[in-house]
Design brief:
Helix content: over 70%
Number of domains: 1
Shape: elongated
Radius of gyration: 17 Å
Structural class: mainly alpha
Largest sheet: none
Length: about 100
């Protein structure tokens, strides 16, 4: 397959994720949209690495690093979201204003 097909797929997934971040009100859905954006970046990295040099694994190594960072981000973000839900009984980002008393 040509590289452009993977880039179009990656751009479409990234745009869907960006729309999800900007339009959603639930913190869990925003977190899922961020994960979709990170997966779009991974698709682009792996496709570009496979297209440019078949022997070097730089794109795959960076993609594994991105997956590791995404897993840590999900764990921390879900812990924060659960703590906010216990305190405020909502995960709606418009209703959560922890800086105000």
């Amino acid at each position: 397959m040509p590289l452009e097909a993977f880039q179009v797929l990656s751009a479409a997934l990234f745009c869907i994720g960006l729309y999800g971040v900007l339009a959603r009100r639930s913190a869990v859905l925003i977190l899922m949209s961020i994960e979709l954006m990170l997966n779009a970046v991974n698709i682009n990295l792996i496709a570009a690495a496979a297209h440019m040099d078949q022997t070097a694994f730089t794109g795959q190594i960076i993609a594994i690093f991105v997956i590791t960072v995404a897993a840590a981000e999900v764990g921390l973000a879900l812990a924060i979201i659960l703590r906010i839900f216990r305190n405020r009984s909502t995960v709606n980002v418009d209703e959560v204003d922890l800086m105000k008393w």
